[in-house]
Amino acid sequence: MTVGSAKRTVSERLDDMTEHTVKSYEQELHELTQLTARMGALTQQQFRDAISALINSDENLANHVISADDAVDELQQRIEQQAIHLIAKRQPVADDLRVIVGAMRISIDLERIGDFAKNIANRMAVIKDDSHPRGLMKRLEDMADLAIAQIENVLDSYAQLDAAKAIAVWNRDKEIDGMYTSLFREALTYMMEDAHSITFCTHLLFCAKNIERIGDHTTNIAEMIYFVVRGSPLKGARPKGDTSATVAAAPSG
Questions:
Q1: How many domains does the chain have?
Q2: What is the pTM of this model?
Q3: Is 209:184 a contact under the CB 8 Å cutoff?
């Protein structure tokens, strides 16, 4: 074997090693984003089931939501550990670093959404036997439907790395806020007019507030996706529509 052929062989081996390293790194990044997407799907289903359990007084489903929270927490920990491992091992920069940090930050918001879903499921046992105004339950259900749609859209945005979809989710959060304010006002009126409704309305408002917070965390995810894609944060004040702090019940009679 000539010296020249030996040199080419060494060069080829170095190229193979570099290609293998790049492919391995890309695979690790892909696994991280897939794990985050999986957590998102699980969290969305947990929230959907929590609302269904509440609306239908389904104790078995509520218990399933509560127990599913452990799986959500475990995924969040795995994502965080994998992200830290990638940063330490690969020392990523620019786009790759944003993808890794983005997955870690998104998993934190998804874990909080799971916690709020669990909170809602826990309330089902308290209010399931109460007679309650169907109008309030319908308002809560409509609010939850929008929040679920927001989660679905933000997960699509993440899967496609679509900044425009992320902005659309960001802009719609004020609709959830507005629905919460409306429900808060109506529940307050019920409580002023009928003392027997106070327990139910209090627990229902707790659930509604959890949905409103889920909307906030979904908006956090949208902001992070925008940052991952564009490399800069969304500018301007976040659209808000929650004015419940200033609501006063109209006097009865």
A1: 1
A2: 0.85
A3: no
